[in-house]
Automatic annotation (TrEMBL):
Keywords: Cell membrane, G-protein coupled receptor, Glycoprotein, Membrane, Receptor, Signal, Transducer, Transmembrane, Transmembrane helix. It is a multi-pass membrane protein. PROSITE patterns: G_PROTEIN_RECEP_F3_3 (PS00981), G_PROTEIN_RECEP_F3_4 (PS50259). This is Extracellular calcium-sensing receptor. GO terms for molecular function: G protein-coupled receptor activity. The gene is olfcv3. It is found in: Cell membrane. Belongs to the G-protein coupled receptor 3 family. GO terms for cellular component: plasma membrane. InterPro entries: ANF_lig-bd_rcpt, GPCR_3, GPCR_3_9-Cys_dom, GPCR_3_9-Cys_sf, GPCR_3_C, GPCR_3_Ca_sens_rcpt-rel, GPCR_3_CS, GPCR_3_vmron_rcpt_2. It comes from Chanos chanos. The chain crosses the membrane at residues 588-613, 625-647, 659-683, 703-721, 748-771, 783-803, 815-838.
Amino acid sequence: MTPLLLWPLFQFLAALNQSPNPQCSLKGNFRPGFLANGDFIIGGLFPLHYNMEMPDLNCTYKPGPVRCNGFDPRAFRWALTLRLAVDQINQREDLLPNHTLGYKIFDSCAYPLTGQRAALAVLNGPAEVNSPMCSGSSPLLAIVGESGSAQSIVVSRILRPFRIPMISYFSSCSCLSNRREFPTFFRVIPSDDYQVKAIAQLLLRLNWTWVGVVRGDHEYGRFALQGLLRELEGTGICVAYQEMIPLLYNRQKALEIIHVMNSSSARVVVVFSAEGELTPFLRDYMEQNVTGIQWIASEAWVTASVFTGSEYYPFLGGTIGFGIRQGQIPGLRDYLMTVNPVTYPSNPLVKKLWETLYDCSPSSSSSRNSILPPCTGQETLNKQHSAYINTSSPRISYNVYKGVYAIAHSLHNLISCRPGRGPFSNFSCADVRNIYPWQLQHYLQEVSFTISGEMMEFDMNGDSIPSYDLINWQRGSAGNVEFVNVGLFDGAQDPGKELVIQEKGIVWAGHQGEVLVSVCSESCVPGFRRAVRRGQPLCCFDCVPCDSGKISNRTDSVDCMPCPEDYWSNAAGTRCIPKAVDFLTHDAMGIALTVIAVVGACLTVAVLVVFLYHRNTPVVRINNSELSFFILFALALCFLCALVFIGEPTSWSCMLRHTAFSITFSLCISCILGKTLVVLAAFTATQPGNNVMKWLGPKQQRVIIFSCTMVQVMICAAWLITSPPFPSRNTQYQRSKIILECTVGSDVAFWCVLGYIGLLAGVCFILAFQARNLPGNFNEAKYITFSMLIFCAVWLAFVPAYVSSPGKFTTAVEIFAILASSFGLLLCLFAPKCYIILLKPEKNTRQHLMGKEK
């Protein structure tokens, strides 16, 4: 057990040892601050002091009384509000007619231990000193209190066995909504479940994703933190640190917390604390000269008048938080002005009020030991005493006011009960002369009335309708702190519409007009995704650009979305655009190939014209002019078929380009094969008895050319019938583009076509190679050999290049092979002849060609 818990036990044992007899009697005196008799007595517990000093606990003598320090004029105003409300009710004829309310007001000293002591004292009746403590029953029916949640938990547990209802005006811990644990607890302040929801929405609205949390060492702070963490789940907001101010203030611990706050990159801090424990903490905070932090205050201290001094503004100016909704209390200011030491000469609380407000000791109660200068006790209250007399926007005082009226209306309903229509057993009513507290609680649970235009009622958990004002700390005319309403939170509204903020009217930390930024990592713009840093919260991340083919079209995307198959990401990675369609078009490369093909066809036609013009010359006639014309015609078609490969592939162009290419080249090679056979036969026919030439006449040559070409035609026909080439959209090879290409349909047919052309070229090469050394000035077999060698080399190189070339380059490789092999045939077969015909006409004679020229 801690010394704090042992202290009441020590007091009890000491008193027991000193008692002359075992009779139960009062062993101490804990006088109420204010006392008034009435038909119905209610209690009031207020933190008239905001900290306490523990007595010496050496166990050798009776401990002294607890000393309460730091008189709070604001809490004193709350207590006087209870007195005012009771006086107003007692003067009304429509509420509790012929009955009066009385009260006992005690100081809880803002601490659970002294709150417990005050609760026990308030239970003992109005005159404990003059009557035994344990005899009779207490006339107490209800209590208005407590301020802090920790004190309310203690007091509520004490009251539970007696079933005495308690209405709190300032305890917001969500834990107190547990009806099983706190069955007699009511409150006129919203539960922290709504406050943390409001704070979470505020953080989201202002894009504060990296915040710190400081809380007090009590149930209020613990449950508020748990509720806030629960509300922040899945919102993208992270808590950078969680610090706790000790219940018994420790300066070293406070400096450690301040260091964490100052060194953290989180520039927004949410504080769940009471003003009593926060006051010394803020003094140390200001001593360390820490600035640039945006404070978010809980309702427990956001409107605390103790922080309105001008010394607080440079450090706490711009603080924002949710405060209790304000209301109107008629006559409160005038009532407060009547309280002074002259009117209450024997009341020590009024004396402390004057000492706190004026730093003087009233003459009516001054003593020689007072260290303060004397004063009359009739000094005039003014603006500098706003902690006490500021009634322009009462909040906590208004809650006290509502709590008293809730009890009064409940009592009124109780005494208005008609026999036989009551809510208790056998429809009975309560005995007005002997009311039990649990009977009053029944009516409290169902009470409903209007006060200052506001509907007042409790739900099944004893909670009232949740609503808050959004408060901003701004500089007043005297440099002090003023609480300015800049919005509201109404929990009765639809989800998402509860929070209303007037951002233009807010002054932010450091007296700035713009919202302070508090993020662990800057937002990722569209086109990037968030990559969480290892070992750090989700709010700390790196921005990684989306991979090609993926996009993110919103800020802070967790992942990038893949584009549909026919779409690709733009350069910024923010949207999907249709993929570029890629095929060999009339661009630079397409135009170059077209020009080369046309030039090749024109050269072939030019050679044909030359041969036609000189068809009767020996060079033309000796090389079989008919076959030469056929070869030139076929070569012209070979050059021109390359043009079919350029342009967007269609069903017809795909079938045409492969069949045209294969048939024209088969025709060309067949003609060359026929010429090779003729050359070989012509030189072997000179041998005696050889009659080969009769089998290679013009007609037979045509049959050979036609037969060899028809074989290719039949292969192509079978290809087109069974599985013809067709256009396809290739999205796999280059994912950023759609490659329009002609798929061959049947790979077997495609390679059969090429194989057949290769077979013809191979046979032609072998035959020409055998005739290369035959005598003659112009042995055409040599040129056929060279042409076939070039042709075969081009197409052998074509195969790996065709297989490995991407996209439109596959088509370009095929066109290049067609043009290269065509030029090879044209140059090797006809360039030497054109050279003789055009440049060396003297060699274009029969004698020269036969080698008989002298």
